[in-house]
Amino acid sequence: MNVVLIALLLLPLAGAALTLAPFGTDPEAADRRALRLGTAVTGLVLLLTIALAAGFDHGRPARMQAVTDVSWIPAVGVRLHLGVDGISLPLIVLTALLTFLCAVYSTKRLPDGPGVPSARAFVGLLLLLEVGMLATFAVLDLVLFFLAFEIVLIPMYFLIARWGSGQKVPAANRFILYTLLGSAVMLLGFLLIGSKAGTFDMTQLAAAHGHGLSHPTQVIAALCIGLGLAVKAPAWPLHSWLPDAHTSAPTVGSVLLAGVLLKMGTYGLVRVLLPIVPGGTATLAPYLGALAAVGVVYGALACLALVRPGAKGDLKRLIAFSSVGHMGFVLLGIASLTPVGVNGALFANIAHGLITGLLFFLVGALKDRYGTADLDTLAGATGAALYGRAPRIGALLAFAAVASLGLPGLAGFWGEVLAMFGAFDPAAGLSRPAFVTYMVIAGLGTLLTAAYLLLVVKRVCMGDPKQPALADVPDMRPYEAVSWTPLAALTLLAGLWPALLLGLSDPAVKHLLGGG
Amino acid sequence: MHSSVLGPHELLGQPAMTPLAVVDPGSLIQSVDWVAVAPPLIAAVAALAVLLADLFLPAGRKKALGWLTAGGLALALIALLPLARGNTRSTFCLQNVTGATDNAPCSYVADHFALVFQLLALGGALITALISIHTVDEEELPGGEYWFLLLSSATGAALLPAARDLATLIIALEVVSLPAFALVALRRDGRGAEAALKFFLSSVTATAVMLLGVSFVYAATGSLHLTAIADGLTHLPAQLKPLAEAGAALTLVGFAFKVAAVPFHFWLPDTYTGSPIPIAGYLSVVSKAAGLAGLALVTTIAFHQYGHTWGLALGVLAALTMTVGNVAALRQRADTRHSAVRLLAWSSVSQAGYLLVPLAAAGATRATAPIGATVAYALIYGVVNLGAFAVVSAVARTAPAARLDDFRGLFARRRWTALALAFFLLCLAGLPPGVIGLFGKVVVFRAAVDAGLGWLAVIMAANVVIALYYYLTWTAKLFAPAEAAGLEQRRTPAGLTATLALTASVAVVLSVAPQLVLQVVSGTLF
User: Fold this and answer.
1) Going by fewer Cβ within 10 Å, which terminus of chain A is more open, N or C?
2) Which candidate in A118, A188, A200, A227 is best for mutational testing of the B interface (most B CBs within 10 A)?
3) What is the rounded distance in angstroms from the CA atom of residue A85 to the CA atom of residue A91?
4) Minimal CA–CA distance to A245: which of A235, A181, A270, A255?
């Protein structure tokens, strides 16, 4: 088992290194080979994660499994400590799945044009990105967590800056500088904990549950770490890098950014903040909850502003803002500090990864077909009429939109409802009136979310198919179907059978919150 | 003069701390531990050998001098090996009345601190020599002088970290600096002379200030040995305190000049751009490391007593240095002449700021443990910065202006060179895949956080982000689509290829196994 987890990290790393090897003299053949290599490696990684999930002892999801714990840098007390539990397992599977789907999608649809680098570089960066993403969810040492957190920056920077569109370089710079500032502050928090507690080991620190750390230390550490993770999540008002990054990023970049990178922030909150500095977290939780509630409404209002006719709203930008709202629910669930809320947050994490991943794929496909993601251009006078012109894409977009607004029976529902339940009855010591207020505000946010998503469906899917079209819109192609259907199917599965995920996360969450 | 011979304590009616007369004059001839002094000695002998060989070698064979220099430095590095194994060796110790040297202060101590800095000085000089081999040839620099001066300066840099009295320290520091002025001036295009003059004047000022400080300290404590000064400062008569404090401050100012800490940094960018590129790399690593080693020795051993004061001063200096260096680097335009070297010059100013952080932490905690972070960071910085200078030197062969824009599309032209530079720059920025750069920053941050210097850590965090911007802009340029097709392709000379391979593989190996270098953080240094 632990070999599987190690292979999970080494395999994409080796694949990334392999892209530096000569791939033949003919550039086109070399590119094809590289893309095939990317698909093979990410596919193999996905198979390994499935093996990991199959071998996982589902009876005891609170226990760390597939554990490797060897010394790496004794001078600094950093250990190569890896393991998975019920919280990280779904995220690891989600990461492997999304990366594989992105690799499949890229074999047919890689942005090209003058100045775009070779596909080899793309595959190398994608695999390096996968290493960082998987490592974030698999490591159990604070310094390693920081390292994994940083590994994703350079590949994502280049994916946006070189394969993106529009104002791509400023957007990429903003992304990396913002995130680095956050993670540098986060590192200070980690070092403070390490200095006071004498270890960077997450399991030991979680077992101590804050014992040995004074309250002021906990508050300062929680503030530093929380800031870094809130930039990544992103929490309002630290989200301003996100819309630009998404608007400029290529489809694959957007999918992984929304589907996985944002989760690294919320995962860190659950894995580090809740169990390791519980006292500090409890002090800061009301503020986090308030930011989360504002984020929900802010995201929805921004989307409503973008969806208005004549607003020149970019569809990718809109989905980016909707992510701010959805991550607001996740943060609210975490801020409630209750098992219900945190379970909801983790569920919403996965659901958002599936649904928003699907939405970004769809919008990326539209952008490819129309050459723009500008809503006004797409919709024309009456609406883009995808139902008539490209019924499969239209139907899938409508499906993803209603899943995103939280229709019961689909994945988006459970997480947000549980997060609000958590806020309705927050942990002892937290102000109940405040959290009930947050819940009400978030509830208002769900209404606004429904409003803008339905407006998007109206403007993109409906309309008069006879009106002169901007471009020829071919319906879903086979490679698109291959990369999208798993996401749609899982959205449905998670919606109908939430126990699949909650059964895994619940014992682990109780373990982390209780410290037992 | 009279009082300084007798020592001030005589005048104050206190007993002398150091014996002035020895019972048996014959015992003054003490045995020298040749193994301990071997590393600087070999470098010095090599310097003389090169100077002599230059006289007898025919003009066509002068290239051999470069390899002779590299060989001498490699030999000096090998001489470190037996020292690393055994116990700390010391030599040139004071003797007490019976002629024994137990617990007496020594002038030369080959402890771990000294060995690690000697590794950095000699290794850095070796890499510089490898980069220089083609520079000397192509820029038609006078071979014999160049190699002699480089070896002399390296001798000083190797001697300095082992020096344990102020006289030896200052002499070593001058042995580092004086040949460096001449090295800077060797470029015969006018710029070199101006650069050297600027460097010379500021350095001489620094030395003068430092000598004044040292004389104050000697006057107050009656000794030049660092441990004896520390002793003397603990029971100092009240009326001598201002003198000692002023002396300590002036001595630190002198070292701050050598490290090029802000506000004593103004000579640096012009000096770097005016000197041959390998020498700029040498100044940024070896000369800076020498200043840093001296600073660490003087502060943590001699002025241990004033830890809180100089700790705070160094903290402020570190914050200023990194901020000014980074902001200036940020303002470099990519299309001006020598912008690549200028950027590396300013980046080296900011890196000096990071290097000072653990020293500030050492002052705040009045412990020597944080120094390990400076040592580790200096080693990492030395490898990757010299690597970056090697790449600049390689690119400057086809694009002599060495503008940042000349690096555009380097990946398309020279794949591995570009990848190496990208790796070095990311190491300097401290972002994966430059893992070792990241851990270098982590240990520096850790030293600051452990010492309770939260404000300094936060300033440094902001600076790391600023620095990332210019390192990343440069890195992105390497992979940009190539535009300049006019640049001719030339084969990279063997020395440069060897340097690039060496520095890049060391950086990669350290990234996989950071313990190799970070062990100095947890080990005992003194």
Assistant:
1) C
2) A188
3) 10
4) A255
B133: in domain: no
| Residue keyed to tokens 């339940």 | A421
Q: Is B454 exposed, middle or buried (0-12, 13-18, 19+ CB in 10 A)?
A: middle
Work out how many domains chain B is built from and give that number: 1
- Residue in chain A nearest B431 by alpha carbon: A150
Q: Is the pLDDT of residue A253 over 50?
A: yes
* DSSP 3-state of A83: strand
Encode pLDDT of A62-85 as tens digits. 889 999 999 999 988 899 999 999
**Sequence-ordered list of residues with C-beta below 8 angstroms from that of B412, at least 6 positions apart, any chain:** B481, B482
Closest to B450 (Cβ–Cβ): which among A146, A180, A195? Answer: A195
Determine the pLDDT at residue A450: 93
Q: Compute and round to an integer the Cα radius of gyration of chain B.
A: 23
CB contact under 8 A, A154 and B431: yes
Q: Tokens 């020293």 sit at which residue?
A: B359
Is the overall model pTM greater than 0.90, yes or no? yes
- Cα(A245)–Cα(A253) distance, rounded to whole angstroms? 9
Amino acid occupying residue B514: P
Q: Are the C-beta atoms of residues A462 and A313 closer than 8 Å to each other?
A: no
Can you give A141-188 as a three-state secondary structure string?
EHHHHHHHHHHCHHHHHHHHHHHCCCCHHHHHHHHHHHHHHHHHHHHH
For residue B517, being part of any structural domain is answered with yes
Radius of gyration, alpha carbons of chain A: 22
* Mean pLDDT across A356-385: 86
Cβ-defined contact of A76 to B438 (cutoff 8 Å): no
| Chain A interface includes B464 (CB < 8 A) | yes
Q: Which of A73, A177, A187 sits opposite B514 (nearest CB)?
A: A73
Where do the structural domains in chain A lie, given as residue ranges? 284-516
**pLDDT-based confidence at A260, cuts 50/70/90?**
very high
CB A346 within 8 A of CB A501: yes
**B412 interaction partners in chain A (CB closer than 8 Å):** none
Q: Does B450 fall in a domain? A: yes
Q: How is chain B split among helix, strand and coil, in percent rounded to 5?
A: 75, 0, 25
With bands split at pLDDT 50, 70 and 90, how would you rate the model's confidence at B3?
very low
B86 domain-assigned: no
**Residue B384: which domain range?**
305-526
Q: Measured between CA atoms, how close is B436 to chain A, in angstroms?
A: 11
Are B435 and A147 a contacting pair at CB < 8 A?
yes
